[in-house]
Amino acid sequence: MVITVAKTAGFCFGVNRAIDIVENLAKEHKNVCTLGPIIHNNQMVNKLKSEGVKIIESVEDITKEQTVVIRSHGVPKSTFLTAEEKSKKVIDATCPFVTKIHKLAETEKPVLIAGDKNHEEVIGIKGHCLGDCFIFKNEEELKEIINNNPDLTKKELVFVAQTTFNRAIYEKCLNFLKKVCTNAKIFDTICSATVKRQQEAELLSKQNDVMIIIGGKNSSNTNKLYEICKKNCPSYLIETAAELNGKMLELLKDVKKVGVIAGASTPAFIIKEVIQTMQNENTEEKVFSAEITDDMSFEEALEASLSSFNTDQKVKGVVLTVGPAEIQVDIGRKQTGYIPQSEYSWDPNADMQKEVKVGDTLDLIVMKTNDQEGTIMLSKRRFDNIANWSKIEKANETKEVLEGKVVNAIKGGIIVKALGYDVFVPASQASLSRNSDLSSMVGTTVPFKILEIRRRRNIIGSVREVLKERKDEASAKIWDSIAVGDKFKGTVKSITGYGAFVDIGGVDGMVHISELSWSRIKHPSEVVSVGDEIEVYVKDLDKEKKKISLGYKKADENPWTIFTEKYAVGDVVKAMIVNIVSYGAFARIIPGVDGLIHISQISYDHIEKPQDVLKIGDEVDVKITEINPETKRVSLSIKETLPVPEKKEDEVVASTETAEETKEETAE
Ligand code: SF4
């Protein structure tokens, strides 16, 4: 048996596009739904269901959280607007060829549609008409419409056809219409994919003994292929390879030549299964309509039979439209050029709807031309990849610094994505510190240099080399100009018991613990933490030994200055007891300034020890009795804030005697 597979078998441009849109959405969103089955093929619909895509039968059933896809047949305008009201996101996967008919139909002039009035595409077109609309499926029905509406012959009217309408019937209708409606504006909207497929069905069914037509039994274009084929030879319409069972294989047993064609909504995997089943059972030889080479695998040969590739051809395209699923461009040929979203950019976060506008010129690579459909698939991503590889090779030669985003931390290093390529940076080259946490780098943008390019475009890079160079440059600049008193914003790099090391922009200096606070502290961590950004100034430096002492305390925050500006001897202030010793108690006047209340200044009464009348935390009134600026000491008295007690008579005598004795002692 010789099997001949039709060149036009499988998805057309519009169906392929709709499936791509749904599959891409299903990867990113939950709640993806199609308004009706996305295509007339149960196997593909079930495959999408297994990927989480649901089918909504009526626009009324849409809920707010659903992402709704309008299928390639299109819908009436009112349905689209209702869907937009009900759902937060409506994606229009209507085939651009059908959208074109919608635009033609959006007129108040009468619209004549050659098509099946029950087909969703025709219902959708009708739903865009603003005036009268007449639908007919053959010349007889058209004549009847004209007979019933004779004024149509005088009116300006628009004539369009369902994209899958039979070409021969269309021609008959057209001939009649041209004679009676001289003011009709005629638009040939039959999709060339359909025409070519039907022509190939006609040809193959004449050249072969049997035709196998693969596709959904509810698919109108598949049924049309079946109708065409069965006129010329025994033909069988099957949905899957499973239908090639015993009886069917028996029928094919002595057949010499079998032709295979498939509807526009038949996935390639089903065509492959059917061919493989026939091949396993019966074939001695297989042929494909497209050119194939000897070293192609079966799958590649089939792919080649479904489309002709013309890769690596560079073209410039002017942007015509930017949609969620693809960009359409004019590349100066009669075919429609389009860039699917997956071929737009190597960057998964790129948003083509934001980045590209109508009229932009893009550099592109031709990926696939389809003369049957009149489309050319293009890739911007592949063009960019070629251009970017040249940049990478140049950067390797010149050791230019590149930038990339860390996308993964793996055993032994990190992966940096730059210009669409993965660069491996070993752990030892990932940062200045050898012990840094590589996983914390994921998501950050880093500079790097290429160390080497190994076989198969394996790029090895170093972030450390760039950081070290930058640090050395910054350090040299600082040592050239640094002077005592210079101020810097620095980052605390590490802390020890005696101070904190601060990076002031490529050079580290040390802030001694005594320089961190005006108050007494036990450890630098009471004031600063690693990673803090602090303002420091140079207190001292030794350029030979490369040592810098930094100051952190600010003069205007000096508590002694604040105290002396605010208080004077004789002032009575409130103070808190912060320490008690055998000879008195220390009271805090302001943070950083404590004064001594000598035991003799606590009370007029004799006290054994300060604890008898004071405890830490007591708030007391004190009089400032002495301020010593040199020793920065303050003397305080509680006693002097108290009323002087009246003395008893014997105390007065005793005191007078004591005074006399003191005078005599002094005289002696
Ligand atoms: S048959 Fe033509 S019009 Fe219909 S979906 Fe396919 S490409 Fe679009």
Q: Can you give a write-up of this model?
A:
With 668 residues, the chain is of the alpha/beta class. Among the domains are: 98-190, Cobalt-precorrin-4 Transmethylase, domain 1 (3-Layer(aba) Sandwich); 308-384, OB fold (Dihydrolipoamide Acetyltransferase, E2P) (Beta Barrel); 399-467, OB fold (Dihydrolipoamide Acetyltransferase, E2P) (Beta Barrel), CATH 2.40.50; 482-553, Nucleic acid-binding proteins (OB fold (Dihydrolipoamide Acetyltransferase, E2P)); 559-641, Nucleic acid-binding proteins (OB fold (Dihydrolipoamide Acetyltransferase, E2P)). It is built from 17 helices and 33 strands. The strands form 7 sheets. Strands 11-10-12-1-13 form a 5-stranded parallel beta sheet, with helices on both faces. It has a 5-stranded mixed beta barrel with strand order 14-15-16-18-17. It has a 5-stranded mixed beta barrel with strand order 19-20-21-23-22. Helix 8 (192-207) packs parallel to helix 9. It starts with a strand and ends with a helix. The relative contact order is 0.06. Mean pLDDT is 85; it is low at 281-299, 304-311 and 661-668. Iron/sulfur cluster binds at residues 12-15, 72, 95, 97-98, 163-164, 191, 193-194, 264, 373.
